[in-house]
Amino acid sequence: MKVVAGNTSPILASRIAKLTGLKLAKTTFKKFPDGEIYVRVEDWDGVNVVVQSLSSNESIVSLMLLLDALNDTEIILVIPYMGYARQDKMFNKGEAVSIRALAKLLESYASKILTVNIHSKDAAKHFRKLINIDAMPTIGKHFENQDVVMLSPDYGSYERVKVAAKVANCEFDYLEKNRIDAETVEIAPKKLNVEGRDVVIVDDIISTGGTIVEAAKVLLSNGAKSVKAVCVHAVLANYALNKLQNVGVEVIATDTIERIVSKISVAELIANSIDQIT
Question: Which of 1, 101, 115, 192 is the most exposed place for a label (fewest CB within 10 A)?
Fold first, then answer.
């Protein structure tokens, strides 16, 4: 059995290989002048653990070619970040349920699919072979016994932050929006006072970061000592990292999407799951 690194997850794949004691297969990714992608796996095995986050449309095409190159082998597919998971239902007549289409394609190749904190239960329901791994305890461990208060950006993420906070052994709450008038919305923790506290906002995804930017401004103006934004998946679209740093927010993420802020690794979680199914 070997680990095959996709072109979006080379560092995480290397960490998983080291923890599982497996060798990394040699892979080649190239682009032709017209933009078409070329993929070659030089030394595959009978069973292959393929690691590729789907953080762009190009990453999906690269994965499809990688899976085709390994088509005659058994594939355990590790997708640390499952793109398109927010398109999990039909909101308007005639729309594609994008994650359903992706699930059908991926499961035609893989015997098992491992992912980390897929965005919703509705998205997970479109898979038959999915193992969804929770990274919130790992995030909590990163802050273990530090004097922080953890907040979720809204009530919908409250259960996530609860898991992280219990491991970190810290207080937790969620941010509540209250509309004061037509032009004013107040954002504040539901119960906790953040004055003089180091605040950690925890969520599964940071995409544009807009909500966290506004929340951080309010928290700091209310006397918070510092604000960190911690997530599993650092999508960080539209210069989100710059926007967050400009208001004094430190961003910390896992390596499901490999970024400069990826300071927490999910490699051990994934390696343990692979050991359990092989």
Answer: 101
The predicted structure's pLDDT at residue 185: 53
Per the structure block, which two tokens stand in for 47? 């069973």
Confidence class for position 180, pLDDT limits 50, 70, 90: low
Residue 182 is predicted with a pLDDT of: 52
Q: Indicate which residue of 177, 217, 225, 263 is catalytic.
A: 177
> Is residue 177 annotated as part of the catalytic site, yes or no?
yes
Q: Which residues pair with 47 in a beta bridge?
A: 74
How far, in Å, CA of 244 to CA of 155, rounded? 21
Residue 265 pairs in a beta bridge with none
The domains spanning 2-134+266-277 and 137-255 adopt the same CATH topology: yes
* pTM listed for this prediction: 0.93
- What CATH number does the domain located at 2-134+266-277 have? 3.40.50.2020
